[in-house]
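Data deposition worksheet. Section B asks for the primary sequence of the deposited chain exactly as it was used as input, without tags or linkers unless they were present during the calculation. Section C holds the resulting structure in C-alpha cell form. Section D is free text for depositor observations; keep each observation to a single sentence. Incomplete worksheets are returned to the depositor.
Section A, Depositor: J.P.
Section B:
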Amino acid sequence: MNLHRMLQQREADSRPIRVALIGAGKFGSMYLAQAQRTPGIHLLGVADLSPPRAKKALRHVGWPAERLTARSAADATRRGTTWVTDDTMALIASPEVDVVIDATGHPAAGIAHVLACCEHGKHIVMVNVEADALAGPLLARKAREAGIVYSLAYGDQPALICEMVDWARTAGLEVVAAGKGTKYLPAYHQSTPDTVWQHYGLSADDAKRGGMNAQMFNSFLDGTKSAIEMAAVANATGLIPAPDGLQFPPCGVDDLARVLRPASAGGQLHHRGQVEVISSLERDGRPVFRDLRWGVYVVFAGADDYVRRCFHEYGLITDATGEFSAMYKPYHLIGLELGVSVASVGLRGEPTGCAQAWHGDVVATAKRDLKAGETLDGEGGFTVYGRLMPAADSLAVGGLPLGLAHGVTLKRRVAAGAPVRWSDVMIDARSQAVRFRREMERSFAK
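Section C:
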C-alpha cells in the first residue's frame, strides 16, 4: 500500500529504479505511456528487433525525441535519457539496469532473457506469460538460485488473479475457484486467422486498417490464451486444473458463487481449489447477463455459520446455502498497470505472482485432422490450439507443450481434438528452449 510513497522517496533521493523494457508492442507501449509519469522510475533502455519501430512507439505515447538519444545504458544513466537498441543481451548485461521487463510474448526468447537476467543479477518481470506457461516453475527456481526476483506482470490477468487469491487466503478464506472471464463458444477451438474476424464483428479489411494481428487475436478466441494464463495461475497459486481442462461455463458476476462451486454442492467445478475461465456467452450465443469478459474473480467459502452469517450481514451475494461467495474485478488495464510489478520488485523484492510448483500445462491440440509432413504454426494459428491439462496428465500422455509447437513438422497424422505428442513431431533437441523444458519435466515430475 506504500509503493507510491516509496517511489516518491526514490525520486527525492535521485535514486530511481532503472528499468529496461524488451519489446515495444502494445503491452510495452502501454507501460511506456505510464512510465514517464511515474516518480522514481528511469526508463534506461528499450530493446526491440526494430529500434525505429520502438522509437515510433515511444513518440506515439508522448516521449520527446530528445529523451531517446542515448548511445548506451551508461550514457542513458549520465544524461537521464533512454537507450533504444536491438541488442537485447547488451541491455540486460548493463550494470546500470535494475529491473528487466520481457514483453516479447515469445516463449524461447523469454527463457533466454530470464537466464541472462540470472547471469547478470537483474530482476525480471514477465509479461511473457507464454514462456511462463512453458517453463515458469524452472525459470522461477533458477531466479531464486541466482538471487533475483522473477515476477508475473501486474495488469495482465494472471497476476491480478494471484493477488485476489492471496487476499482471500490472507483473510483466512478457503479459495474454491479463481480465474477470469472471456468470450467463448466451443466452436472457437477451430477458429483460424482466416475466420477470426467474423467472431469479433469485423471485416478483414477493417482489422488490417486497424493494424490488428489475426493470429494474435485468434489466440484470444480459440482458447489458447486462456489456457496459457490459467496454467500460470495454477503454478503460482496451487489451484489445480480440472482433468478435462477448462470448461468455460457461461456465468455472470451475480452467479459466480452458484456456478463455481463443486459439482457435489450443485455447481460446475470438478473439485474445490480449481482454476476456471467463465464465458460471456451462453452456449446458444446469447450474451450472459452482467458478464465478466474483461475481468477476474475469486470464489471462496465461509468456514462456519458465523462467517456465513457475516457474508449475509454485509450484503455479499452467495449461493443458496450461504457457504460460497465471490469477489471480482470487472476490468484489467494491461500495460497501464505494469508499474505495480516494477515497483514491487524494485522496492520490496516481491513478485506480483510467481510459479511455485508445476500444476498446469498447455498442450498443443489439433484443430482439425493433421497430416504427416504438415508444419505446426503455434499459438493462434491454423493447426493447433492450447489445451490446459494437469501437469501430471500432460507428462503421462507425452504432450507437446504449446510453446514449442511452432515451426515443427509432424511425423504422423494427428486426429482433430487429439493432443500432439513429443513423439509426433520432428524437433530440434539441441535448442535452448527444448532442453530447458525437458529439464523442467525431469525436475518437477511427480
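Section D:
The chain has 17 helices and 15 strands.
The CA atoms of residues 378 and 406 lie 4 Å apart.
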